[in-house]
Backbone:
């Protein structure tokens, strides 16, 4: 029935600020569109008829899209907090890198807010060097470097 994961949507209170954050991580902006249509209310269960979104991609042409959306008016609802990483439901998105430490240092210099600092977790099969960083709206991004056993 389903063929592939199309996109992951992130609602933003400042679309340009969010796009700048994700492009620093290496995402490429593919399209920036504004939609004004009364059917948005019905299709997405929102109180508005307008949105602006940017599709970004990290990886090849078949990679899943990141869909960053700013609703308005009245705007993207505020007040949602970052969930605990052991809470049920969606808690973070993960991206791969060749150097978690390099990404950490770059984002730290830019003033990004981190949940965790770079940490290596090993298993007999290999491991990960990860850090968790918040995007401008508090969405947690797991920066992951794969580590050989």
Residues:
């Amino acid at each position: 029935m389903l063929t592939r994961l199309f996109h992951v949507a992130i609602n933003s209170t400042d679309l340009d600020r969010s796009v700048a954050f994700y492009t620093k991580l290496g995402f490429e902006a593919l399209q920036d569109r504004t939609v004004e249509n009364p059917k948005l209310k019905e299709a997405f269960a929102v109180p508005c008829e307008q949105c602006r979104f940017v599709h970004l991609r990290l990886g090849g042409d078949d990679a899943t899209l990141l869909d960053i959306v700013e609703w308005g008016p009245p705007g993207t609802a505020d007040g949602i907090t970052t969930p605990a990483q052991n809470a049920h439901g969606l808690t973070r998105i993960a991206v791969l890198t060749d150097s978690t430490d390099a990404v950490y240092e770059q984002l730290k210099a830019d003033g990004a807010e981190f949940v965790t600092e770079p940490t290596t977790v090993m298993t007999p099969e290999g491991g990960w060097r990860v850090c968790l960083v918040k995007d401008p709206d508090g969405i947690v991004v797991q920066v992951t470097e794969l580590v050989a056993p």
In short: The CA atoms of residues 7 and 64 lie 5 Å apart. The chain is about 15% helix and 40% strand.
